[in-house]
Amino acid sequence: MGTQPVAVGESGAELSTPPGDLTQRALAWAADRAGEARGRSGERHLDHARATIAILRELGVDEAVLAAAALISPSDRLPLREIGAEFGDEVERLVDSMRQIQRLRELHSVVGAAAQGQAETLRRMLLAMATDIRVVLLRLASRLHTLRYHAAQRRPPDAAIARETLEVLAPLANRLGLWQFKWELEDLAFRFLDPDTYRELARQLEERRAEREAFVEAAMRRLRAELAAVGLRAEVSGRPKHLYSIYSKMRSKRRALDEISDLRALRVIVDTVAQCYAALGVVHSIWTQVPQEFDDYIARPKPNGYRSLHTVVLADDGRPLEVQIRTAEMHRFAEYGVASHWRYKERGAGAPVRGARAAEAGQDERIAWMRQLLAWQREVGQALGSAQAEGAAGGAGAAGQPSAQPALDDRIYVLTPQARVIELPAGATPIDFAYHVHTSLGHRCRGARVDGHMVPLNTPLQSGQTVEIVAAKETGHEGPSRDWLNPQLCYVRSPRTRNKVRQWFNALELERATAAGRERVERVLQREGRTALAFEELARRLGFEAVGPMFVAVARDEIGPRQLEEAVRGPAPGAAAAGAPDADSGQPAVLAPRRRAREATGRGDGVLVVGIDSLMTQLARCCRPLPPDGIVGFVTKGHGVSVHRDGCPTFARMADRAPERVIETAWGEEALRGGDARLRRFPADVEVRAADRPGLLRDITEVFARDRLNVTAVQTLSRQQVASMRFTVEVPDATQLARTLAAVRDVNGVIQARRR
User: Fold this and answer.
1) CA count, 13 A, side-chain hemisphere, 688
2) 662 neighbors 712 (Cβ within 8 angstroms)
3) 721, exposed or middle or buried, with CB in 10 Å at 0-12, 13-18, 19+?
4) Which residue of 52, 179, 453, 579 is most buried, as measured by CB atoms within 10 A?
5) Helix, strand, or coil here: 517?
6) Nearest CA-CA partner of 102 in 52, 57, 63, 31
7) Taking 50 as the threshold, does the pLDDT of residue 455 lie above it?
8) How far apart are CA 634 and CA 652, in angstroms?
9) What is the average per-residue pLDDT within 503-532?
10) Is the model's pLDDT at 353 over the cut of 50?
11) What is the C-alpha to C-alpha distance for residues 205 and 209, in angstroms, rounded to an integer?
């Protein structure tokens, strides 16, 4: 079947399709392809489409929307490309948008009611995916019929459908001002989600229904008579009760059913705003007003445009009675919301609008829709941080164009593979998405799939897309690329993402500076023979509270070599007294002669070199002596005394070659007592053999960390499922090392743990 010809008038302008023709063609085309196909509820797709179209006709929507309602499902039998070829681009766009939004049902079933903040984000996502109001109306009408069908079949739908209706669609209908939709959607969803409470509330209302209806009828007669007496022509009626709104008020205000003020309510419809206030005066003259229950929504309309006067009075029986007063125009808006803007305008014009008039009317509708959407964004933005919409509101429609459109596009909503909604700035890329999910995922991001297809990492995302990140394994060396910070390459859009990437590179630079500074400090300690000097003590001497900033300062040359060497050497014993002027004579004090006798001289590293004073010492790296190990010394050339453990093979070879350079040594009392464990640390080498398994290295290092031993080096090698590890740790003494090794042997899989 080809595309139907379009009629052209005398002026050459295209005429609109005859009313009903496009819809009937769409239904016939869908029936030919869908046949008896049924949805999850068991209802035929064609029956669902017809019922949805009937609901939409009540709103006075155009033929394109009605045709789209016939072509939405089943998508596998109604290809989008064929819909566009047969019915035009407008119908195709509506169907495509509707199919995307229908994914929210599956999404909300995964999100669940307990996901805090997700319901509001889903509403905003729906609005972002449907900048054409007609798509939202399609969604609401389709869901309304689905619930009506389940109610008629006396078979509840999936809980996710009812929950989405109550949390997403009914509030959206409220924002559109579609109160008839809102109330029916809420009541039906409430009926399915909490059937016991629904039945109990309905039973309580039914018990007093006759009494309530008699009272309302009497109140209506009295009010009509009083209004007529003052010359006000008005339509007075009883307002229908909606169970979910009653239930919500009982729960929020913690009141019993009899204490709810609008169980008994009247509605007064007059011609003008002035008559509204005149009618209000009549009501207050008949019954006693409850001051705290008065709301003037005419002077201060609700954000969704609702206008009316609400007052609560005490009736003749002393119980509350609510009265709503509005004009006929306000009532139309209360019933049909935004749809009333064009529904009644077109009816008043008589014949269908054609040519340029139709285009102008459509533009007015779009501008009104943009303004409404901006109002909602301002309302929700206070909770979700979308403040940009606030500033954009003032520029809408100044020249007849929807200048507020950029504010509608400042956010997008995409999905994770687990159907979690992620809100991002417009133009965001997969890298922005990854960092929003988790910083670690952003660092490890290497690729992305969008709706199942691999895309470049600088691809702008669109609302409704599902994004999956291809990430590198967590090795500790993964990280972002510096290209991501290049604005010309457009890898990141979000300032939050850009800050995360910068933080990673700043941390990397800090780590490198710390390692370089530590290496310089260790070289100076070795050269000065003070390897036992704790880093914390050195930092204190240099005026730092922690060793990290000290290492960074050394690496950046903020601490010079001479300053570092002087801090390593420390103040000489008695230096202040020796170099200070004599208190009596004002002359420098005479230095005391050095004692050359064979006496013990205390060293800052806890080693006593017997017989020679002020001689530099260093602990040998070949055997790593620890107190209270037996030790011996060997006088080196230019590096002072090298202190070894008794029985060290390296010391034995040197002693055989030069026995005259062997010197008697012993530990100082401070080292043997333990001293300050934070300041007195000695390096020790440890060997561990274990059955290789995931997490082995982590478990062993946790033992060292628990015993507060600093690991300065690690070497690992695995062969034939056996891991050989070598650690260099800083310990206060051999006793502590023995306790730690015993704990290491208890780690699962460890075969041997010993000191080298």
Assistant:
1) 31
2) no
3) exposed
4) 52
5) helix
6) 52
7) yes
8) 10
9) 87
10) no
11) 6
Assess whether pLDDT exceeds 70 at residue 129. Answer: no
Q: Which residues pair with 467 in a beta bridge?
A: 450
Question: How far is residue 606 from each of residues 208, 609, 632, 669, measured CA to CA in Å?
Answer: 95, 10, 14, 7
Which letter, b or e, does each residue of 68-101 get, where b requires 16 or more Cβ atoms within 10 Å of its Cβ? bbbbbbeeeebeeeebbebbbebbbbbbbbbbbb
pLDDT of residue 400: 32
Element (H, E) at 564: helix 561-569
Confidence of residue 258 (pLDDT cuts 50, 70, 90): low
- Exposure b/e, 627-646, CB count within 10 A at least 16 = b: bebebbbbbeeeebbbbbbe
Is the pLDDT at 347 greater than 50, yes or no?
A: no
Task: Decide: pTM greater than 0.85.
Answer: no
What angle (nearest 5°) sits at the alpha carbon of residue 488, between those of residues 487 and 494? 30
232 contacts 270 by C-beta, under 8 angstroms? yes
Phi, psi of 321 (to 5 degrees): -140, 125
Backbone angles phi, psi at 194, to 5 degrees: -135, 70
What is the distance between the alpha carbons of residues 25 and 401, in angstroms, rounded to a whole number? 34
Spell out where 100-194 has E strands: none
CB atoms within 10 A of CB 503: 11
In contact, 517 and 553? CB cutoff 8 Å: yes
C-alpha span between 434 and 448 (Å, rounded): 9
pLDDT in tens, 711-754: 888 888 888 888 999 999 988 888 889 899 999 998 888 989 99
pLDDT at 102 over 50: yes
**Between residues 590 and 64, which one has the greater pLDDT?**
64
Residue 499 has pLDDT above 80, yes or no: yes
3-state secondary structure of 222: helix
Tokens of 148: 């009506």
DSSP 166: I
Which residues pair with residue 309 across a beta bridge? 296, 325
Termini Cα distance of the chain: 88
Residue position matching structure tokens 């050269």: 527
CA–CA dist 657, 654 (Å, integer): 5
Burial class (CB in 10 A: 0-12, 13-18, 19+), 581: exposed
Say if residues 401 and 452 touch (Cβ distance below 8 Å).
Answer: no
User: Does residue 628 have a cis bond before it (omega within 30 degrees)?
Assistant: yes
Report the mean per-residue pLDDT for the chain.
Answer: 76
CA distance 309 to 325: 5
**Confidence band, pLDDT 50/70/90 cuts, at residue 106:** low
CB 533 within 8 A of CB 604: yes
